[in-house]
Every structure is written in C-alpha cells, then in structure tokens.
Design goal:
Blueprint lengths: L2 H10 L8 E5 L14 E7 L2 E6 L3 E5 L5 E4 L9 E5 L3 E5 L2 E5 L4 H6 L13 H10 L4 H6 L9 H10 L13 H24 L20 E5 L4 E5 L9
Antiparallel strand pairs: 1-6, 2-3, 3-4, 4-8, 5-7, 6-7, 9-10
Bound molecules: zinc ion (ZN).
The site of zinc ion (ZN) has 6 residues, from loops.
Length: 242
C-alpha cells in the first residue's frame, strides 16, 4: 500500500476513536494483551503506517505489499491482529504489526509527519535540501521514506512523468526550480489519489504500467535502482539530468 491507501484506511477506521478495546487476537508476536481495556484515542496515518493510538500502547501497522484490513468482517485467513471494540471490530491481515509504547524510540522513529507527503506538516524545504544533496538517481530518492514518506512505485512513476523528469536523472543535478516543482507534483498527485479513493472516482494512470505515452511514443520499461523496481518512462517527454 502506498501512502494514499493508508490514509484512506485511517479515514475509514476513524470511528474507532472513543471505543474501548474489549478483545484482542491474532498471530502478531507482540504484547497484544497490553491493549485489552484500553480506549482508542486516535486513528491516523503517517507515511505508509496506520497508527491506532490508545490511552496505553499503540498499534502500528505497515501493510507492506499484501496487507489488508476488514471492518466488522473477517477474511478466511488468520488475522495478524484483530481488535473487538465497544461497537466495531477491525481485522488486519498479512501486514507487519507492532504494539509499541508511544514513549519508545521506535514509536518516535515511525511518527514523523514532517516526512509524510500527505501530511500538512510535510517539510518541503527539507525535502528540497535532501534532493539537492543526493547523488542517487531520482527514482531511488523518491522511494526513500526518510525523504518522501508515503511515496511508492506507482506515485514515483506518475509524478516523474507529470514533472517531465527522466527517472535515471541524478537527483543533485536536477535544477532547483525543477526539483521544487517535482515536490509540488508529488504532494498534489498524492492528495488527488487519496481524494479519488475517498470519493470512489478512479484516477487514470498516465505512465505506470502503460504501453504508450500521451505523445504516442512507446513507453520504456526498465527495472532500476537500489531495489530494482519497475520503472516506466518516455525518453522524449522526460528530460534526463546527468
Ligand atoms: Zn512521451
């Protein structure tokens, strides 16, 4: 799940706030019994993680590639964690779940809204500085969760096309104005994707998984970068900064 899907999950489960956790189950090897009797204070998303904060420990879920959740329903597979609350039940499958003390270092490392492109607290100036100092290719920098939290492979491909930047470009070689423009495109695209999920109007992809560019040239597809991720680009529309 990329950031917009996790933010959607937070919105869809926000009504859990105010409810008390009556029962906890699941195969997460975490201190889940700590949660029984706790009152949920807030459900929120930070980068690609869902935070369920209680008046005690918090449940922090990273859905990874195949994670999913159900509200007041069960899937036919074991829950990673399930919480039965006063009115509603939330079941989470296949993700990575942590039950953490909000005062712990690990919790604080995850709780960085200033690095979440969908948060109003996102620090654009820090992101610009980081981009300008980084000699990796931009396709890798965009996936770096310490710079662009919430961005995944789909957002990466779409925004590089929308900003007309070749994914093989060296981040530090992208002119400052262009880099700042890319940051705005990342924020805008992520918000539009979240909005489309909340309203049920699918967002049309223009580059990810496409055969043909809007200019009618063939899209190049290549695995690239630190994580060898699938990348799509149009070499005539997108400028290469070396
Ligand atoms: Zn093109």
């Amino acid at each position: 799940m990329e950031g917009p899907s996790v933010h959607q999950a937070a919105k869809r489960t926000s009504h859990l706030a105010g409810q008390t956790i009556e029962e906890v189950y699941g195969n997460a090897r975490q201190p889940i019994e700590e949660l029984v009797g706790k009152k949920i204070e807030k459900v929120r998303a930070v980068k690609k993680r869902l935070f369920i904060d209680t008046d005690g420990f918090s449940i922090i879920t990273h859905f990874l590639m195949y994670g999913s959740y159900r509200i007041n329903e069960r899937r036919e597979k074991p829950e990673r964690i399930g919480i039965r609350c006063t009115k509603d039940t939330l079941n989470i499958y296949n993700g990575s779940v942590k039950v953490l003390d909000p005062k712990s270092t690990e919790y604080m490392e995850y709780d960085q809204p200033e690095r979440d492109v969908l948060s109003n607290a996102f620090d654009k100036e820090d992101a610009l500085d980081a981009m300008r100092r980084d000699d990796r290719i931009i396709a890798d920098v965009l996936l770096d969760q310490d710079i662009f939290g919430g961005v995944g492979n789909i957002i990466k491909n779409e925004v590089l096309y929308l900003a007309r930047i070749d994914p093989r470009s060296v981040s530090s070689s992208i002119p400052e104005g262009k880099a700042a423009e890319l940051i705005e495109v990342v924020i805008d695209y992520s918000r539009r994707w979240l909005q489309s999920k909340l309203t049920g109007n699918a967002l049309t992809r223009v580059m990810y998984n496409q055969q043909e560019c809007e200019c009618q040239k063939r899209v190049t597809r290549e695995n690239m970068g630190e994580y060898n991720r699938r990348t799509f680009y149009c070499s005539s529309c997108q400028a290469l900064y070396q």
